[in-house]
Amino acid sequence: MKSLLSLALLLLFTGSCSAQKPHRCRTPPLLSGSLSVSAREGQDWAIAKYRYDAIGQRIRVWEFGHVDDRSFHLNMLFLFREGVVYSISYRNRTCQKNPLHTAFHPSHIPHNASLQSQVVLGGSSGPGEGLLVNTWTGDVPETGGKYVATVTEFGCIPVSTLYYTEERGWMVTTYFNGVRGVEDPGEFIPPPFCDDVQTEEEVLDFYSALSEESMFNML
Question: Minimal CA–CA distance to 136: which of 114, 154, 112?
Fold first, then answer.
């Protein structure tokens, strides 16, 4: 009797999940994880760890990869409320500080996105075998680009993004090991050797700061 009841509840729960209408959503305000990016049919690639804080409007990125026939490493801290971005090198104990000329945009599925599909990644024969995700498509008029973004149905956790630009064609981003929260808030604080650094004259925005060395792109 107990097993039949459990099966009935499982079927009811599964049925209610699949019947829900997908909705545009916003990722958790605090998120930690990793991602990989590739472009130009794999000629350019990068792997990164990130910390995302929509409450304090801060993003931290540690990244390495290969772009335009050269390797690179990045350690960057974006403080949107303060309007500055730090490029940090612990090996050399050096720090570059630039004005950050851009508004903070929380990671989300835009209001004008169109639902492409809802599918189960992996298997759907039993609990824990698959992941229910929603895929959305849309355009980015300010850059002339377009995107295909996939997030989990429950939690709105980023899974993957396809982003098209004329410069590099399609960029593929895959997110993994994502967890809610930021374990060490101190990661959003510049190290002591950055305290006395002078602000550079060059003003950067979020994408130009990263594109100088990489093709990293958030959702």
Answer: 114
CA 82/CA 91 separation, integer angstroms: 26
Dihedral, CA atoms, 63, 64, 66, 71, nearest 10 degrees? Answer: 130
pLDDT band at 209 (very low <50, low <70, confident <90, very high): low
Decide if 136 contacts 197 (C-beta within 8 A).
no
Pairing of strands 145-152, 130-140: antiparallel
Chain length of the chain: 219
DSSP state of 198: P
CB 160: neighbour CB atoms within 10 A? 19
pLDDT in tens, 86-100: 999 998 899 999 998
pTM here? Answer: 0.81
Residue 10, by phi and psi: left (phi above 0), alpha (psi -120 to 50) or beta? alpha
In DSSP notation, 23-88 reads ---B--SEEEEEEEEEETTTTEEEEEEEEEETTTTEEEEEEEEEETTEEEEEEEEEETTTTEEEEE
Residue 119 near residue 133 (C-beta atoms within 8 A): yes
Output the six-digit token pair for 184.
Answer: 């060490």
